[in-house]
Amino acid sequence: MSEMRLYDTDGNRLYLNAEERAAFLAAAKRRPARDRTLCETLHFTGCRPSELIEITPARVDLSGGTVTLRTLKKRKDSSGYQKTVFRAVPVPPEYLDTLNTAHGIREAQKSYKRMSTPIWDLTRQRVGQIVKAVMKEAGIAEGKHRCPKGLRHGYGINATAKGIQLHMLQKWMGHADMKVTAIYATAIGQEEQEIAARMWD
C-alpha cells in the first residue's frame, strides 16, 4: 500500500482547506443540477469519484439522512476471499432535499429499474473534469490539491478539525486501517488552530 500524504515532497498542500471547501460549495451551487449535486455529494460524503458513480437512488436514505457507498478498495475476509464493504455516511438534510428535487430520488425508489440505476451516468474521468472546472470557477489556486482527491482529503481534515472521532471518520471514509485515517490528525495551519482552540475554551 502506498503511503498516503497530505503534503507533497515540496511541502505543498494536497487537500482543500476550509475556505477553499466553502468556495467550492458556493461555486457548485451556481452549476446545473447534475453538476451541483455531484459536487455536493463528494463534498458531504468524502467519497471517491469511482464510488460516486455507483450511487443509485436505492442507496439514498432520505428519512435516515445517509448515503450508502460501496467501498471499492479491495478487502479480504478471514478466509482470504474478497468481500464487499458498504458504509452509510451521514449527510445534511438540505443536501438530501436538493438531491431528491434534482433527481427525483423518492419517485425513483418506487421503481425497481430506476432505483438501481446510477444517479450520475458518467465516467470517473468526467467526474474529475467537472470537479476541476468548479474548483477553477471557485478561484482555488492551481496546484495538486485542486482535484477530487484534494476534496476527499479536505473532508478528512474538516472532520478532524470539527472533533469527529477517528474511528467514525475511518468508517465514513472507508479506510481498512486506522493508521490511514490518523494522518488527518496531523493537520496544520488554520485547521490546527481550530483543534487547538478547543483546549483554550
UniProtKB/TrEMBL annotation:
* Domain (Tyr recombinase) ranges: 11-197
Entry keyword annotation includes rRNA processing? no
What is the protein's species of origin? Ahrensia marina
Q: Name one Pfam family in it.
A: Phage_integrase
- On the tree of life, the source organism's domain of life is Bacteria
Q: What is this protein called?
A: Integrase
Q: Which PROSITE patterns match?
A: TYR_RECOMBINASE
> What keywords would UniProt list here?
DNA integration, DNA recombination
Gene3D superfamilies cross-referenced by the UniProt entry: Intergrase catalytic core
Q: Which SUPFAM superfamilies does this one have?
A: DNA breaking-rejoining enzymes (SSF56349)
Q: Which GO terms describe its biological process?
A: DNA integration; DNA recombination
What GO MF annotations does this protein's record show? DNA binding
